[in-house]
């Protein structure tokens, strides 16, 4: 059985932290990070807001990302081995050699139709503006945020893409990014575990 989990949502919402815990707990689990598909900096256009447009789909090679996911769908064992993942039962139930799980993590997972349809379950982390801005200000990026980027580009693009997702009726499980890391992990792990057991 193959199972694809999306962990999406707002920048600095806790997606990567949650993903890293989940992939360690699930058997035969691989991960695809959307951030690995950013186009080179010189291909990122400057928008009308005066900022490089990092927080839009055009900044990402989404075709390559979908191709990567399809490679996993075609042969999860080969994909796992080529990504250094041991194909053995995990340390926690449900443990079955027949279960193969892919976690896809990123900030724009549910706005690209060819990707949306591949998920078995879609989680969406959200945090309020003030907390998101605070967290973002503590992060060090390869390309540092210029002054005003969060209010002038990052947050408005988040609101725009979330509205598009909601308007298109994408079915997501909302997660409160203000919960503790342990609470979020326990909620998601238990939910995934129950869904996998129901599929067996």
Spans of at least 5 consecutive residues whose pLDDT stays below 50 are 90-96
**Broad shape:** globular
**Number of separate helices:** 7
| Strand numbers in spatial order across the main sheet | 2-3-1-4-5
What's the alpha carbon Rg, rounded to whole Å? Answer: 17 Å
Number of distinct beta strands: 5
Distance between the first and last residues' Cα: 8 Å
- Output the structural class: alpha/beta
Strand content: 15-25%
Oligomer category: single chain
Mean pLDDT: 91
Q: What does the largest sheet look like?
A: 5 strands, parallel
Helicity level:
40-55%
Provide the succession of SSEs: EHEHHEHEHHEH
Task: Describe it.
The protein has 200 residues and is of the alpha/beta class. The chain has helices at 15-25, 62-74, 76-82, 113-116, 129-137, 149-167, 181-199, and strands at 2-9, 29-33, 100-106, 121-126, 173-176. A five-stranded parallel β-sheet has the order 2-3-1-4-5, sandwiched between helices. The longest helix has 19 residues, at 149-167. 32% of the residues are buried. Mean pLDDT is 91; it is low at 90-96.
């Amino acid at each position: 059985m193959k199972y694809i989990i999306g962990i999406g949502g707002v920048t600095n919402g806790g997606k990567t932290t949650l993903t890293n815990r989940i992939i360690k707990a699930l058997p035969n689990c691989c991960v695809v990070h959307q951030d690995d598909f950013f186009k080179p900096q010189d291909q990122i256009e400057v928008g009308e807001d005066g900022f490089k447009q990092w927080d839009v789909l055009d900044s990402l090679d989404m075709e390559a990302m979908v191709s990567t996911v399809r490679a996993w769908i075609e042969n999860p064992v080969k994909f796992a081995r080529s990504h250094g993942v041991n194909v053995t039962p995990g340390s926690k139930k449900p443990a079955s050699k027949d279960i193969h799980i892919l976690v896809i993590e990123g900030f724009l997972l549910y706005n690209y139709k060819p990707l949306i349809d591949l998920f078995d379950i879609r989680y969406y982390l959200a945090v309020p503006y003030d907390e998101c801005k605070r967290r973002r200000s503590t992060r060090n990026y390869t390309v540092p945020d210029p002054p005003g980027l969060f209010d002038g580009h990052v947050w408005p693009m988040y609101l725009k893409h979330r509205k598009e997702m909601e308007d298109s009726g994408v079915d997501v499980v909302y997660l409160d990014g203000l919960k503790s890391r342990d609470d979020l992990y326990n909620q998601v792990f238990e939910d995934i575990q129950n869904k996998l057991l129901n599929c067996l």
